[in-house]
Write a structure and sequence with these properties.
Blueprint: E1 2-5, H1 11-22, E2 26-31, H2 37-40, E3 47-51, H3 57-66, E4 73-76, H4 99-125, E5 131-135, H5 150-167, E6 176-181, E7 185-186, E8 196-197, H6 198-211, E9 219-222
Parallel strand pairs: 1-2, 1-4, 2-3, 4-5, 5-6, 6-9, 7-8
């Protein structure tokens, strides 16, 4: 299997890369800045590391050129969580919201995810049983919103809508498109108090991705394969 992982520098993206390699897949791992040591340490004949900033059209174009051939699975994992280390944008509360922060978060988590999907769609359509999975969140569920963070929740809801639209676009016919919530996973973003170790989360995510087919096109699932309400 040939797999592309965006946002592979740490957390879920790094663990996706590690577990795909462990089971013998060929992996194209991308990250915005210089690859961290944890990613470089996975280097081998089945791993290609390439730069990719999902908010920049020129970076996306260069990544497509650097990663030739068909893809069987694309994990659109890259994104930002306001206030985290390495992220300049803040979440804020009513009375403190800053438009530029909101636009930056929406740009990375939603717009970036769909334009990357658009760019790599021809590669997916050339793959075997191709699947496109966007990393969403329970915060992206309108039904489960009881005070969700404004910018982050809106960005994940927007991602859900964009990928749902793509799932039923004739241009993506033959590609199974889904969004997946990893839950509260123990990563830098999730924190040490998160309920699920990242290794367990990713094992579940891989099982879900392996089982995706036309019947799940346009679905919103959690890391255990359960349907998440829109």
């Amino acid at each position: 299997m040939r797999v592309l992982v965006t946002g592979a520098s740490r957390g879920i993206g790094l663990e996706l890369t590690r577990q795909h390699l462990a089971r013998g897949d060929e992996v194209f791992a991308t990250c915005r800045g210089r690859p961290p040591g944890a990613l470089v340490s996975l280097s081998g004949p089945r791993l290609t590391i390439a730069p990719l900033d999902v908010t920049r059209a020129d970076s996306i174009r260069l990544a497509v050129e650097a990663l030739p051939g068909p893809l069987d699975l694309l994990w659109a994992n890259a994104g930002v969580y306001p206030g985290m280390p390495g992220t300049e944008v803040e979440e804020g509360r009513i009375g403190t919201l800053v438009a530029e922060d909101g636009l930056a978060i929406l740009g990375a988590n939603a717009v970036g995810a769909i334009v990357v999907a658009q760019a790599f769609l021809p590669r997916l359509k050339a793959g075997t049983s191709p699947r496109l999975v966007g990393l969403s969140s329970g915060y992206g569920s309108l039904a489960q919103n009881h005070g969700t963070p404004y910018w982050y929740g809106a960005s994940k809801a927007a991602l859900n809508m964009l990928y749902r639209s793509l799932a039923f676009d004739p241009a993506a016919r033959g590609v199974t498109v889904a969004v997946l919530s990893p839950g509260w996973s123990r990563t830098d973003m999730g924190g040490a108090g998160a309920t699920t170790p990242v290794e367990e989360t990713v094992r579940g995510m891989l099982r879900v991705a392996d089982g995706l087919g036309p019947g799940q096109n346009g679905s919103f699932l959690d890391w255990q394969g359960k349907t998440v309400p829109w």
